[in-house]
Amino acid sequence: MALGAEPVEPGVMRRPARPPEQSVLGAGLWPRILVLGALVTAGTLAAGVWAQQTGHPWQSLVFLVLGATQLGIALGSRSRPRSLANPFLLAAVGLALALQVAGVLLPPLRSLLGTEPLAGADLVLGPASVCWGYLAMRVQRRFFRADRGEHGGGSGVP
């Protein structure tokens, strides 16, 4: 819901409408989804494999990394990323990240979610994953333009 309060991009009403026969995933949206999904999957699997190989609670780490990466993507999808125009999104992301960390730290939530406690160094991967998701979203916005289905540099406006 916090994304729904995000201010619209400048000039959005001057863009031509999409053709009625165009799919919801048209205008270059499906490659953006595939690329971002592949990046999230690769990052999450890398963290899980690393945790499993080093004897850390890999399921808890995957839970934290996957959720935090998605929160970073939400922040990176903003049209004005460094703006305080929508404080609800920042509050929602902060609360969601705190609840995810609580899910691996607090015993009642751990038993409910089936997670194990993580060490302090492992917990750092949560905020790091927010950064990873944010950067992945900003980079793909730069290289995929959904408004015309074009690839390449440009304004980065979807």
The SSE string, one letter per element, is HHHHHHEE
Largest sheet: 2 strands, antiparallel
Helical amount among residues, as a percent range? 55-70%
In percent, how much strand structure appears in the residues?
Answer: under 5%
Number of helices: 6
Task: Enumerate the spans where pLDDT stays under 50 for 5 or more consecutive residues.
Answer: 146-158
Report the C-alpha radius of gyration, rounded. 18 Å
How far is the N terminus from the C terminus? Answer: 20 Å
User: Which outline best applies?
Assistant: elongated
User: For the residues shown, what is the average pLDDT?
Assistant: 82
Structural class: mainly alpha
Provide the number of structural domains: 1
Number of strands: 2
Strand order, sheet with most strands: 1-2
Structure characterization notes:
- The chain is 59% helix and 3% strand.
- The chain has 158 residues and is mostly helical.
- It has one domain (24-151).
- Strands 1-2 form a two-stranded antiparallel sheet.
- A hairpin with a 4-residue loop joins strand 1 and strand 2 (150-151).
- It is elongated.
- Mean pLDDT is 82; it is low at 146-158.
